[in-house]
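Researcher: First entry.
Model:
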Amino acid sequence: MIDYYIDTNIFLNVIYKEKAFYEKSKIFLKKIHNGECQAITSSITLLEIALDMAESDYIELIDKAIASIEDIQNLEIISLDKTMVKQAAVFLDKCA
């Protein structure tokens, strides 16, 4: 059973060591890695991370950051197909 969806900001908090969020985000990701919970993220999240890091001039660290995320145990990285994207768009439209 999946407990959480992890969005881009959680990973970026750890990558950039954001003062206000780094420790909690790091602990959260460790809990997932240690099997205390299960989580998913999307392949789009990895793309967003790479784009953000490139824009922030951390191009040389992108591969390492993505590999670190891919190595997190109990984290499934899912691809989004057309149906999932449409469902997400409908959900976002309802939230707006």
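Researcher: Second entry.
Model:
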Amino acid sequence: MSSLPTAPAEPARTPLRRSGGPWVRSLVVMVALGVFVAATGLWGSGSLYGWIVFAVTAVWSTVLAVVDERTSRLPNWGTVGLGVFGAVQVGVIASSLQAFEPVTTALWAGGLAGAVYGFMASVGWCGFGDAKFAAALALTVAPFAGFLAVYIVPLAFVVSAVRILFRRIRRLPDKHPHGASIAVAGVAVLAVALLVGPVFWPA
């Protein structure tokens, strides 16, 4: 009869997980980038400032759209990062103009865009990541487009309708990630606002 080992078993080692991960990196990058970009508006050209915001928004939105197309998910670190970047611009513009209207407009636009997509997500038409993305994008666009930033929502619907048409031609299912549609709509509204003349910031 064999005896049982008396030596205690070695405790299992749980691999250490880095706290924060992409969340921390995203927030640090977007806060730093937001402050740097805002500085160009305070001490540089108003027109240059708007187009730098446009470039950052377009690149970040494109990255999120690509991720959504590949994974059908919009990561929180990405949508929240964009929202933080937009919030910095709203705060800087409001303090520079010594007016609270840019803040209230951005909150209304972001809240409405997020609510519409949030309702759609609740009935299964899209994901809640789309709601966060739409809200963050509207918040970022609002200082330049004013309350017209809410037009991101209907324009995104139009882009999605066109995508569905082409998907049907290719005999693909109608259901598709909405991130790219939201990105195209947000970037388009921001571009038009800058070309026509920003609402709260001089061109």
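Model: Note on the second entry: The helical segments are 22-43, 46-71, 76-97, 101-122, 128-145, 152-169, 179-196.
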